[in-house]
Structure prediction request, 292 residues.
Amino acid sequence: MNTASRPKPLPAFIRLPFVRLFLGLFAVILPVVAVQLAVSALPLDRLFKNLFLALLTPPVAIWAYSTFVRLTENRHVEELGPRGALNELGVGTLVGAMSLLVVVAILASLGAFAVIGTGTMGAVLIPLLIAFAGAPFEELVFRGVLFRIIEQGLGSWLALVISAVIFGGLHLLNENATVFGAIAVMLQAGLMLGAAFMATRRLWLPIGTHFAWNFMQSGVFGIAVSGNEPHDGLIKSSLTGPDILTGGSFGVEGSIVTIALGVALSIYLLWVARKRRNIVPPPWRRPVASGT
Prediction:
């Protein structure tokens, strides 16, 4: 038998999940940060800087993640496989857009959301570019590296909780962050995007959902995204009422309406994951391989 094409066995310490977790975060984040620093140094206006980031960030992040997986796990990157990718991205985009529309419709019916004017098509471009650059990168980091590798070490349920807590907690770094807003992001986006990966075992569905959710907030309705300052959108809107309903300065991601919808979607996706037998048990419940 020809053994020349067999991959060399990895050192034992690299096969440890939490060693690979550290290496994976470093491998994916560092090239993207380098791209961001290089683009920020260019003598360009904000629009063209965001255009370059949108063109460069996704392919660099995908290349970095794919290279990391091939080198440390000796396998093809099935979670980014091209077959069915457009369909999953489309479904995810539809889910993200429709979810935001449902939230806005409920808030409008309660008198908490109102349209006060219209913007321009040009106002849509920068939020579109920001969402296009950010969603793939964040999903590769949080679901591709963080959730997936923790899951290998501790099982699906603990990985879902830990990754959601970290995802929500990091939103405390945003400009108008609140503790309740971070908890809200954990409960709706952190759980739902992790569940979307569990249901499909691929990254395209959560990438599409993440992209559309962020773009619809900022680019269409001009709503603050996760506590960041709002951009002008296609629609000029106002949110009035108690913060628990509107999310206050954090945006609708801090709304109890958004939490309820996100939790409901998470439950459905986890049901799909369980039905497809995509739940990874914790190590103490895994069958022990018998020796030969």
Notes: The chain has a mean pLDDT of 91.
